[in-house]
Specification:
Largest sheet: 9 strands, mixed
Radius of gyration: 34 Å
Helix content: 55-70%
Number of strands: 13
Distance between the termini: 106 Å
Number of domains: 3
Length: 738
């Protein structure tokens, strides 16, 4: 036997049969055999193959072992002096096999020879055959550099560009589509490395053949038509397989470190480059001048003192700070998180803001990933960019506060609920866990739980949800465990305080709703100027800081576009879900008539996504694409420049009060003037009626070594704050000093 033709099959029966038929009709003179290795998980071609081509040898692999190992199986039973590895998505020209055998047979120095590959129009493919693939060549030939500079000398040499396809060409690597090799050489190099499931196996094989001193050629006297990608399009996860094989090739041939670094560089494409720029910008805007311009209000001080006491006294709080209704408390979860970072940082106040800033960057990335899953990668990039550059989002990310983590968990909740609605019922306990975390962070997130359970009941009544899977024993057990783990501190507190956080709260919600709806009789749907002003400022700070009208127009257009899209595309689950979880909480906050910025993080992600979907549509309009892209970039840069120039709205009119640096200086001044004596800190001005007003100063002075006394003292320091400045007054024995 002179030649063995080996073909690996995977779910391409008709294409395979056409390939075999072309071989049999090629008028080959040398004695040959055809071996088909069936890599398909379901072996369905054997009977028909043997009936149509009785002389073809058929091998079953135990599973889909990959292209290289499949060829190895064929080579083991082959009887030919030469092996001809051939993809099934090919058509062999007459005399091709004879020419290959004659060429490789007449020269002992030839180890491998490949035919010229043609497309379906019989035109030679531009790139076939390469130089040896090294890390240096990969940097210029396989990365984004090749797209930007396609004629760079390294790339041209690697791809062997513009060689005369009518002449014999010596190369370092031939395409794995079709090539002949002497069997004894194939055995000497131990065949294909089975760790290459698909892709790059021919690079590795040719490297080993060259190391033995043999030459490799492409012979245009032999031609094969290749229907590119037909044999692999039925396989799932090709991109992951490609990346794994590429990494393994460089690791095997050049070491792990080079492979690792090269893999990072080669993965930089247009999408990854944009995402990297977005994430770096997000990090810059969240960490820039954070030690000086961090927000540090009294309510934050409450959490810092509570977290401090956990570490110093072991006193673990069961609830957090009181809400606007003093009989209700926020959950304790943020206090626990804060205690962890204070422990690591030795009580540095900046550590809390570093945590929330980092979470803010993670949320940008998560926005990209979730929107890519729910919509498209382009919407993911647009949403991530809007979130990264949103002034209001940035400000909240720079604030170590219990509401700063809310956007992250709201996005996670929406995504896992989406997956649940797609039939992944086992996710239900995870949904309950995330809702419990959100409740711990801010009581107002209970509106999301309300929406979730209403939608769940509707689906159950419509029989869109399988009750048996939802109420499976495993699901019920995991749901109860999830709920009790997240809510355990609150439940313990409730048992000893008359259940204010659970039962009374759940009873109070409908009472509050009825009260709000009945207030003013028929006036509930009349415009409330204070709330309109509040939300107008919200949209401006969230979308486009320089101008209120443009911000409102962008949002209004996005809202209308989403509404029309929902009406038109009734099956669009993703946009409906985001719309519902924006619109209902928005109405809840509006009619509740409580203009508190603490509620807004619940809406951050949904608002950004709605705007991103609208911008994606605008950018998709080919006539005005460049205009809208430039407008979009203008929004991002204008937000960043204005926000940075205004010190992130710290210490400015209409901003968020004095900076951390100023407050720290006041704390230092208090400690210096007290000079070791006991003293009290007294607050004056807007907000001083709240107990937490001076708790930020209490924490800072403790950190500096002289915490204010809990008992009345003759020495008092009176602090008055406005949006820009802090005024400190010392009172001692009826004497005042400014």
């Amino acid at each position: 036997m002179k030649l063995s033709v080996i073909i690996v099959h995977y779910k391409v029966k008709e294409i395979l049969f056409n390939c075999i038929d072309s071989i049999l009709k090629s008028k080959t003179k040398v004695l040959f055999e055809i071996i088909v290795v069936d890599n398909d998980e379901k072996k369905i071609i054997e009977k028909e193959l043997k009936k149509k081509f009785p002389l073809v040898k058929y091998i079953k692999s135990m599973e889909n072992v990959g292209f290289g190992e499949g060829n190895n199986l064929g080579a083991k039973i082959s009887q030919g002096e030469y092996l001809f590895f051939l993809n099934p998505d090919t058509i062999v020209f007459p005399n091709t096999i004879d020419n290959l055998v004659n060429f490789i047979n007449k020269d002992k120095k030839v180890g491998v020879v490949a035919p010229l590959l043609l497309d379906k129009n019989n035109i030679p493919y531009e790139f076939q055959g390469t130089k040896k693939l090294t890390p240096f060549r990969a940097v210029f030939a396989l990365s984004f550099l090749n797209k930007i500079f396609p004629n760079n000398p390294v790339s041209k040499k690697y791809w062997i560009k513009n060689w005369n396809k009518r002449r014999l060409k010596e190369v370092d690597v031939v395409p794995g589509t079709a090539f002949a090799i002497k069997k004894n050489i194939f055995e000497r190099v131990n065949g294909f490395d089975k760790k290459f499931f698909l892709y790059f196996e021919e690079f590795d094989l040719c490297n080993r053949v060259k190391l033995l001193g043999f030459k490799i050629f492409i012979n245009p006297g032999s031609c094969v038509i290749h229907f590119w990608g037909e044999s692999s399009k039925t396989m799932d996860g090709l991109n992951k397989i490609f990346l794994n094989s590429r990494f393994y090739y460089f690791k095997k041939n050049f070491g792990y470190l080079k492979a690792f670094l090269l893999n990072i560089f080669l993965n930089i494409n247009k999408k990854n480059a944009l995402l990297t720029i977005i994430l770096l910008s997000a990090a810059f805007l969240r960490f820039f001048k954070l030690p000086d311009l961090m927000m540090f209000i009294g309510d934050q001080g409450w959490f810092y003192l509570s977290a401090r006491d956990i570490l110093l006294t072991g006193n673990i709080p069961l609830v957090g700070i009181t809400s606007s209704h003093t009989w209700l408390h926020q959950g304790p979860l943020w206090t626990y998180f804060l205690a962890l970072v204070l422990k690591v940082s030795n009580f540095n106040p900046l550590s809390g803001a570093c945590l929330t800033a980092f979470v803010g960057v993670v949320t940008v990335f998560l926005t990209y990933k979730i929107c890519s899953k729910l919509f498209s990668e382009r919407i993911g990039l647009i949403a991530a960019a809007l979130y990264a550059f949103s002034p209001l989002v940035i400000i909240h990310s720079r604030m170590a506060y219990h509401t700063s983590l809310i956007p992250l968990f709201v996005l996670i909740f929406i995504y896992i609920f989406y997956e649940y609605l797609k039939g992944k019922y086992f996710i239900f306990p995870l949904i309950i866990t995330v809702l419990g975390i959100l409740y711990n962070l801010e009581l107002a997130t209970i509106v999301l739980s309300f929406i979730f359970f209403v939608l769940l009941i509707i689906r159950v009544l419509k029989k869109s949800t399988r009750i048996d899977e939802l109420l499976s024993r495993k699901n019920i057990i995991l749901t109860f465990i999830s709920f009790f783990v997240v809510m355990l501190p609150v439940l313990i507190f409730d048992f000893s305080h008359g259940f204010p956080q659970t039962i009374k709260f759940l009873i109070w919600i409908p009472y509050r709703t009825i009260k709000v709806l009945s207030t003013g009789s028929g006036n509930i749907f009349q415009f409330d100027n204070s709330m309109l002003t509040f939300f107008s400022q919200y949209f401006q700070r969230l979308i486009f800081l320089p101008d209120n009208i443009i911000s409102y127009l962008i949002f209004a257009s996005s809202f209308v576009f989403a509404s029309l899209k929902i009406i038109k595309e009734k099956t669009s689950l993703s946009i409906r879900l985001v719309f519902i979880f924006f619109f209902i909480p928005f109405l809840f906050f509006y009619f509740n008539k409580t203009p508190s910025e603490a509620y807004l993080p619940i809406l951050f992600g949904q608002t950004i996504i709605l705007v991103a979907v609208f911008f994606d549509w605008l950018i998709g309009l080919k006539i005005l694409r460049i205009t809208f892209v430039l407008f979009f970039l203008f929004i991002l840069f204008a937000n960043a420049i204005l926000l940075v120039s205004k010190d992130f709205l710290m210490g400015t009119d209409g901003g968020y009060g004095p900076t951390y640096a100023k407050r720290f200086m006041i704390a230092k001044e208090i400690v210096k003037k007290a000079n070791g004596k006991s003293y009290n800190i007294v607050g004056r001005g807007a907000g001083s009626n709240f107990e937490s007003f001076t708790m930020n100063y209490q924490y800072l002075t403790w950190l500096l070594g002289n915490e204010p006394s809990k008992n009345a003292q003759n020495l008092k320091f009176v602090i008055y704050e406005d949006l820009k400045n802090i005024k400190l007054t010392e009172i001692n024995s009826n004497r005042s000093r400014y």
